[in-house]
Amino acid sequence: MTGCATRSTRLSEFVPEPVLSIRDLTVEFKTEDGVVHAVENVSYDIAAGETLGIVGESGSGKSVSMLAVLGLIPQPPGRIVRGEALYKGRDLLRMPKGELRRIRGGEVAMVFQDPMTSLNPVLKVGEQLSEAIQAHNDGVSDKESRKRGVALLALVGVPKAEQRYDQYPHEFSGGMRQRAMIAMAIANSPSLLIADEPTTALDVTIQAQIIEVMKAAQRETHAATILITHDLGLVAELADHVVVMYAGRVVERGDVFTIFSNPRHPYTVGLMESLPGLAVEQVTLQPIPGQPPSLISLPPGCAFHPRCALSNGRARCRTETPDLREAGAAEHVAACHFSEELEGYKSKLVGAA
Amino acid sequence: MTEQSLERDRTAFAGAAGANPAEVGASTDAALVHETGLEVEVRSQWTYARRRFMRHRLAVVSLVILIIIFTAGFTAPWIAPYSFEGYDINNLEVGPTLSGGHVFGTDLLGRDYFSRVLFGIRTSIHVAFIVTILAVAIGTAIGMVAGYYSRWADNLLMRFTDLILTLPALAVLLTAAAFLGHGSQYRVAVIVSLLLWTLLARIVRGQFLSLREKEYIDAAKAAGSGDLRIMFRHMLPNCMGPIVVFATLTLGGAILLESYLSYLGFGVQPPTPALGKLIADGQDVSSHDWWLVTFPGLTIVLIVLCINFVGDGLRDALDPTQRVRA
């Protein structure tokens, strides 16, 4: 993980206007067993050119919050209870359908998790690529969109792009498909690129290539990028800021160096403890005990307390839901009553980086 | 995004990956195939389907027979040896002979039965094709809307479909034929098709309901595609298998239905021959003129049998569960 040390200081140079600003987003799903509180009071900003990593276990509300922003949550059973998602000042959650559709795939694009299922099997890859181009550019001829499509495939590192353009998804390997998906996402030079676990379905060597493609794509478009993942290594590699989510809530937020060097939420610490470090000789990993809670009936107080090493049975954790509060560094917030006790914790990952 | 910047970044990318473009290309097995000159031809699902269909021998033979019969039917006005209503006064009620010029014999009026069967095929498949096209169009449209929009649209359309399904087909057809008057084969076709679309509507609805949940449909939505584009371009091609199979089997069903109606005297009206009508005409004298019932009857059996075999072959070829996944 060399990314941490070598990354430039592009972040601190200026304070840009946020491209996307999510405030108090709350999403519920009605099921037969009860109401699932998938996302609760989630807020964060992302500025132009910046990469925001959203990390958390499966079911922590990472993807749902993004799908909600794009209006892709089926309603019902889903329901956006409150909150706003201001994209360049306009609220995506209350935007008329047609307007939102023009933004989707144009200014705001998304790369899906599983490239094996995100391409339509009966359409040629090129057709799907030109569709993305033509949907947002009126009057682009087929010939023109083909030319651009081939160039995009070449950009994301698909070899023999001219021939590949006319092939079907089943003739692409997993990594090639994900490249094609990224090509589609950046086809219209988006200002905001949402990548939902772009490397999860791929093997490790291909993951490294896809990370490079993501970087190239970001260089090309200068898009603000939201990276949803549970891979902390990927976050360290790509992200400027990190949002840690647990049980549908943001538990910690801060810039990537602070989060990795000085985590102030026991869940973040737990995530890091459960990762193998390269530099440190280690015999056993420390998993977080227990299971993620059911989002239908969250534990009272802090949702993490039953699994928390820090809580230690303290009553306050069971009775009082912690709010996000300042945790030392600038713009670093954590939702833990006893976050100060983590001061001085040194992540082994920092040593690795 | 300009051409130049694309080119620039392509090289930038290759550099970032620590390799020249050729090496980047060689990193996947599929690309290796290209590198070694073993070009992979573009294979769509139709290519695979055609191959599987060609392996189904009975279906291929049936298809050939059908093509011959249908061609003969469509070109009847040009290839039939006699007119369908021309009288041969010297050859009343002659049996089928190869030498006498009347291969299928003649009827009481001396009309050449081979020619009448050819024209009968023409009428029957004419009606059957119209029925099939209309039924497929109606069924697909209703199934698409119900499956895509679901909720109240689905409820409304599917209850309507249930309603149509409860109608006793033959009774409705006979009543309609009686009220609407006889004559036009197109009228018969429209009425039949209005009863046959229900199954397809249910099939397409089911397919759409399951396709709606696919990630690539979400991806298409996220790419900004509108409802119509998603329905027609992304979802409909994924249902072509069942639709094609349904269309084939409906073609056979429609030929049978048209034959019932014509047989009962509610279908196509004389003197235009239809296969069912020919049987009805022949049955009065079938005790001695066996050929008047046998040849049109055999023709119907042969056509419907072949269509069903072709349908079976298509179903095997297009069944996605049997498709070899890449």
Compose a concise summary of this entry.
The complex is a heterodimer of chains A (353) and B (326). Chain A contains 13 helices and 12 strands.
Characterise this structure.
The complex is a heterodimer of chains A (353) and B (326). Chain A is α/β, with parallel strands linked by helices and 353 residues long. Chain A has helices at 3-6, 62-69, 97-103, 125-136, 142-155, 161-164, 174-185, 204-221, 232-238, 256-261, 266-273, 315-319, 348-352, and strands spanning 18-31, 34-47, 51-55, 78-87, 90-91, 108-111, 192-196, 224-229, 241-246, 249-255, 325-326, 333-334. Chain A folds into 2 domains: 16-239, P-loop containing nucleotide triphosphate hydrolases (Rossmann fold), CATH 3.40.50.300; 249-352, no CATH class. Chain A is globular and about 65 Å long. The N and C termini of chain A lie close together (5 Å). Chain B folds into 2 domains: 3-35, no CATH class; 47-322, Orthogonal Bundle (MetI-like fold). Chain B has helices at 3-16, 21-25, 29-35, 45-55, 57-74, 76-79, 113-149, 151-166, 169-180, 185-196, 198-212, 215-222, 227-235, 240-263, 275-283, 291-318. Chain B is elongated, with a radius of gyration of 27 Å.
Distance N to C terminus of chain A: 5 Å
Question: How many helix segments of chain A?
Answer: 13
| Oligomerization category of the chains in this entry | heterodimer
Shape of chain A: globular
Question: What about the largest sheet of chain A?
Answer: 8 strands, mixed
Mean pLDDT of chain A: 81
What CATH architecture of the largest domain in chain A would you give?
A: 3-Layer(aba) Sandwich
Indicate the CATH topology of the largest domain in chain B. Answer: MetI-like fold
